[in-house]
Amino acid sequence: MGSPQILSSWQAGVVTYSGDETNEAAETFAQLLPVDTVLTLEGDLGAGKTTFVRGLARGWGIADDVTSPSFALLHVYQGTRQLIHIDAYRLNSADGFDDLLVWDIARSPWNVVIEWPEKVASRLPKKHWKIKATILADGGHQFKLFVD
């Protein structure tokens, strides 16, 4: 795993080889992500998106068990920041995002983290951070940052 303490490492792509490494890397990334920012997580099933969110939560002092909101669509956790974790996979349209009332429940300092953001792209702020998660041929998971 490269040095995930600086943004350029994330823009080049941080590679992890276990869930524990993904958690550790995301915990470090949590300190780099500005407050009151949306982070989208793109990637196939099994690419490590929810594991990455667990690490973010740990980085913000959240002790709750972070689980995928696949069926609930949204989970809210509180630590040094409010984490609003959304899984948009089951939304039938971008209009479903509006029904979640995300901006009504967000309390600064917050971060909204969205898995499957392509389903709600028209509802995302123009400026947000993106992580693309990819499963590599050697079994590693690469997390690459894109900042608008």
Features:
26% helix, Rossmann fold, 5 helices, alpha/beta, 7-stranded mixed beta sheet
Any overview of this molecule?
With 148 residues, the protein is an alpha/beta fold. It has one domain (7-147): 3-Layer(aba) Sandwich (Rossmann fold), CATH 3.40.50.300. Helices cover 26% and strands 27% of the residues. It contains 5 helices and 7 strands. It has helices at residues 7-12, 19-30, 49-59, 95-99, 102-105; strands at residues 14-16, 37-42, 74-78, 82-87, 110-115, 129-135, 141-147. It has a 7-stranded mixed sheet. A hairpin with a 3-residue loop joins strand 3 (74-78) and strand 4 (82-87). Helix 2 (19-30) packs across helix 3 (49-59). The longest helix has 12 residues, at 19-30. The radius of gyration is 14 Å and the shape is globular. 37% of the residues are buried.
Distance between the termini: 25 Å
Strand neighbour order, sheet with most strands: 1-7-6-2-5-4-3
CATH architecture: 3-Layer(aba) Sandwich
Structural domains: how many: 1
What oligomeric assembly is this protein in?
single chain
Mean of residue pLDDT?
A: 92
Task: Using the CA coordinates, give the radius of gyration.
Answer: 14 Å
Estimated share of beta-strand residues: 25-35%
- The CATH superfamily name is P-loop containing nucleotide triphosphate hydrolases
